[in-house]
Amino acid sequence: MKRIQIADFDRRMPPLELREMDDYYETVFVLNYDELYPSTQVRTIQLADIYVNLVITPEGTKLVSALFLKPVVVSDIVSWMQLYTISFATADASGYYTEGADEILEIVLYQGNPIVIATRGTDRLYYETEGAIEMRRESSEVIGKKPLLYLNGEAWFGVPHLEFNSSQDEIHVNGTFLFADYMDTYQGRVGFFRKADPGLPVVLLVGEAIIEVELTENPDGSRVLVIEQPYDEA
Length: 234
What we know:
Shape: globular
Number of helices: 2
Largest sheet: 6 strands, antiparallel
């Protein structure tokens, strides 16, 4: 494992360590976290085009590092860190916020706690978590593998949990209109379920081709989910 100091490339940056692994680089926010905690306490979560490592302990959850998949190069990571900042579940009496930011770009939830990417700036930005996607799967064992699906152009290596209101939302799967209450994982696949019978999915996508998912929201608050999965090649 090669260790690189980001401050060697930009003295204005905080003294963060960058580790080079076979398939990725890791920017470390908590020094020697992997020595302080067993691997069973580490959760790797996808956020936009990077991953973050969280450590889960009885005392709470903390953000310890960020992963950048190769073929990214060190100069690209330094540029990314110059432009963006990552925060995890930072809050005060007024609500959740991210410090030293200009614009919030991405919010996802893990066990109800928000993980945020924002452009760097000078402000404290408060935000709401309503509508943010709950990340119910971990990515620890999928680094370097192809994604299972793309959701609005973002690569996912697991299945996001999406809930629907059947009285107003629409679900289209490979051109077929579907009545379902939520989308979730079933044996590692994309499944659609009804709350009245959650044991088995009403539709299960079993092909090996990457799934394209587009989720849009109408002005009236209703949503439209369109899924396309090409047939597997013979």
